[in-house]
Amino acid sequence: MPSASHQVLLESSPEQVWSFVSNFDNWVPLVKGYASHQNLNERTSIWVLKGEAGRIQKTVKLRVDITKQTKPNHIAFSLKGINENVRGNGCFTAKKQSENATLVTGDLTIKVYGLLGPVLNPIITTILPMQTQKLAEAIRFQVLKQRRQLQPAIS
């Protein structure tokens, strides 16, 4: 099953990281292939992602459910394809390193089932680590940007 993990050190408190990752609206648009999303409630969202693998182009609708939240250091979610036979899960874990430094680990596992599974899963296995790293770095950038916007100006 294709999976990837990436760690990034953020110059923010775990509470600041939580404020960002606990809200789908903040980070779903950072996912590669993002087209749109709709929040059904605080724990469930429908994501529309567009992607291509070689000559295969797909638009995938995923139902994403938060399966566990432990504020401010862990959020886990499951993924289930609505229009494609895809399943997976992932999580963000934040570990305080110091007053203003948090180590964030992002994990993602996803598998395509059915006829395209044997073709797409090896491709996903190849690209998932890089995409997980890019997402983690994009989240890092956005958390830092958000933190700077909240800091009072020094005169």
UniProtKB/TrEMBL annotation:
Q: Write down the InterPro entries for this protein, in alphabetical order.
A: COQ10_START, START-like_dom_sf
What sections of the sequence does the record tag as coiled-coil? none
Q: Where is the Coenzyme Q-binding protein COQ10 START domain?
A: 13-134
Q: Domain of life, per the record?
A: Bacteria
The name on file for this protein is SRPBCC family protein
